[in-house]
Design goal:
Layout: H1 2-15, E1 22-28, H2 42-54, E2 60-66, H3 67-81, H4 85-99, E3 101-104, H5 119-136, E4 139-142, E5 145-148, E6 153-156, H6 170-174, H7 187-195, H8 201-210, E7 215-218, H9 220-236, H10 243-259, E8 267-270, H11 272-284, H12 286-292
Parallel strand pairs: 3-6, 7-8
Antiparallel strand pairs: 1-2, 4-5
């Protein structure tokens, strides 16, 4: 009879028939302790935290919850008992050392500019020399342990408008032996940027105006024309890449965004004539497009 009762309750529990019942749980209270350690001794601090957390009687507290609310907490508590933090930390450090990739953006900002060495150039060279040991391979102390950077892949990128790769210190240049120059974004690239990503700018503006009750729709020829305008402005002025799409779309829809609260329930279709009517004159006038687009 007891077996039948347990099976019945188990079946009701799995079917969610008991989710509304309240039960009293005794959950362990995790007490965290933060220990400040000097640089280079983070691993010792981690060991001290583990030692103090295991000392004394583990505290617990009682809570009254519904079965539906208690189930995730029970699952999390039981799963935590099966996890060995030392093994996870060791595996994570090994994965970082063997498969890690570090991407350093805006590397051109730390290159010296011009022939004369100024105060700013001295500071930039200091940053390069700080990066050098990491790229060459060294032991980096973290709060999870020491990480060796010998086999970590370092990738650096920069626009290099005001500086050249040769303006970096020779030691750092030697640690980045493969150099690749990227071509400027074309019209076809802008079309893909406006259509393929889940969070494309066109979809963002459609969702934004939908909050005001305005249904916005971009036709294919409008997207093609917007991509053409962005490519033209980038060629004629400073090439800022895909950021140009932000300024072009903002200028295209600024009037509609302002009038959106008064156009609740309307549907607006953005086609090629609409784009030409709002952006055609700006694109043709270099002076206006320089300051507006």
């Amino acid at each position: 009879k007891e077996t039948e009762t347990r099976q019945k309750l188990r079946r009701q529990l799995r079917n969610g028939e008991l989710d509304g019942r309240e039960i009293e749980l005794e959950l362990s209270a995790s007490v965290s302790m933060d220990i400040m350690t000097p640089p280079g001794m983070e691993e010792m601090g981690q060991q001290l935290r583990q030692m103090f957390s295991s000392m004394g009687n583990p505290k617990s507290h009682k809570r009254t919850l519904t079965i539906k609310a208690a189930r995730p907490q029970l699952v999390e508590e039981e799963a935590a008992k099966l996890v060995n933090e030392d093994d996870i930390r060791t595996a994570a450090i090994e994965a970082c050392e063997q498969n890690g990739i570090v991407f350093i953006d805006e590397i051109d900002k730390v290159a010296k500019r011009g022939g004369n060495m100024s105060g700013g150039d001295v500071s930039r060279e200091g940053v390069q020399r700080d990066l050098l040991p990491l790229v060459e391979g060294s032991n980096v102390s973290t709060k999870y342990g020491t990480v060796k950077t010998d086999h970590i892949l370092f990738i650096a990128s920069g626009a290099f408008h005001l500086a050249k790769p040769s303006d970096l210190i020779p030691e750092l240049q030697g640690r980045f032996p493969i150099r690749v120059e990227l071509s400027a974004l074309s019209k076809e690239d802008f079309v893909r940027i406006l259509t393929e990503p889940k969070a494309a700018l066109t979809r963002q503006y459609e969702a934004l105006l939908q909050t005001e009750g305005v249904a916005l729709d971009f036709t294919a020829d409008a997207v093609d024309r917007l991509a053409e305008i962005a490519a033209q402005v980038n060629e004629r002025q400073e090439n800022i890449g895909a950021r140009r799409l932000h300024t072009v779309l903002e200028r295209l829809l600024d009037t509609l965004s302002y009038e959106a609260p008064d156009r609740d329930g309307q549907k607006v279709t953005i086609d090629k004539p609409y784009v030409d009517a709002h952006l055609g004159e700006l694109v043709q006038d270099p002076d206006l497009s320089r300051y507006i687009l």
